[in-house]
Structures are given as structure tokens and as C-alpha cells.
């Protein structure tokens, strides 16, 4: 080993002195790492008490509690001008998968096809945070819509996700009338008209979602609203929404896809853990060797 910097040598004149600093170093190491992990995996507060009042809700089984016995659930509420809050939750897949998605589709009929979809992809551990994508069901296939950074920030905001006690959840704000100048070939629409709402969960890959469960008796089979829903009218709220903008200019293709993610404090936590670990190990290696 190379000579240790003189900064650590005063601690090594006595083995007793060295042993005294170990508890302090361990405390620094574990306090920095555990706090970040706990704050990151904290369960999202999902409130279903406003269902059929200020919230539109679709859950399996009906009347279940989001934090306890729902196998799947989806809630929508208008929380401000041009702001639709989306709340999605489900049991983790069995057997577990590295990535699981929750998706909400807006359709003109009760069949898959020609639907705008908002999907949230969450890692099994929840450490890396949820990623939100905009996609489109063209027939039985789902493809992500390539939107640029500005469009993504206009459409989605305030993204949160968690994985706690075998349950995943994801919430975000979606623009009711996205203030963007392109509908991307009709794949992005305003949410100010009647839709059937689709809710689905399943396994995912980094660049796409996998097909959902096709067994109608499965807990993970998609949910479809029995009636059409106009998102802008949920809760009979009185907000001044902006006028429609998308589709008023010529569609311009973009060259890359974009997704939004929740903040990732795990990066900061990792650097803190590494620094604390080195502070602990370097004096020990010098003392031993």
C-alpha cells in the first residue's frame, strides 16, 4: 500500500485512539446511507376518500384501499388550471420483475387501438425512481411517442413513485390541454372530451413495455371503465383552463424520444456512502499493513 496521507497519522499513534474513532466513522457511514434510502422509498399517500366526489376512481376490487388490498387502481382529479393529477397503484408482479409499468390509456372505444397512453415505469426496488413516458396504441402494439424536452416538461410534471411492501405506486400531473404546437400525427390529444379509460400493469424493458396479462381471471388483467369519462369535468371544478393549442401548426418530427423521471437522490446518497466508506477503510488499511 502507498503511504497514507499525514492527515490520518495522528489517529494511529495508539491503537486505543484508533478504535475510538471507528464508532464515529460507522455512525457517519450508516446515517448518510440509511436516511437517503428511507426518504426515497417513503410510501406515497393515496387517498380514496374523495372517490366519486372530486376524484374519478377505478379499482380492483371495487371499494378496496389503495395501500392495503387493491390489486390495481387508478384515480384522476383536476387539481388546478390545466392540471390533471394521475394516481396509479398495483401489487408488484409475481414472480418479481426488474421493471414494472403502470399505464393509463385514453380511448374512444373499449378496444385497444388508436389510444394515447401515459405510462410510468418503476424499478423493482424503487431506488431509481419512476420514469414517465407518453406512448400510443396503434392497434395491438404500443410505441413511445418521440417528444422533445420542452414538450415533455409541458405535458408531465411533479412525478413521484414508490415501492413499499410489495406495492408500486406512481403519481404525476398531466396537462389537460398541452400547450404544444404539434399533435405528433394525432398521437397527442387534449383531455377535454369523453374517453374510455384503460388501466394496465405489466413488466417493462428500458425502451418499451411488454404485453399485459391476457388472462381475464388474473389480478393483473387490464381495467376498462364502464362509461366514458371527460377528464376536464372530473369533480365539477371551476378552473380557468387554457384554450387548445396542439395541432394548430404543421407536425414536425423529432429525432429522439424523451422521458421524465423523478429526482434521483440515490446518486447523492451513493457519493456520500463512498466517501464515508473510504474515511473508514483508509485508516484501517494503514494500521493493518
UniProtKB/TrEMBL annotation:
GO BP term, example: regulation of glutamate receptor signaling pathway
The entry's keywords: Membrane, Transmembrane, Transmembrane helix
Residue ranges the record marks as coiled coil: none
Cited InterPro entries: DOMON_domain, FRRS1L
Keyword field contains Heme: no
CDD domains reported in the protein's UniProt record: DOMON_SDR_2_like (cd09628)
Domain DOMON: 101-202
Protein's recorded name: DOMON domain-containing protein
Lineage: Eukaryota, Metazoa, Ecdysozoa, Nematoda, Chromadorea
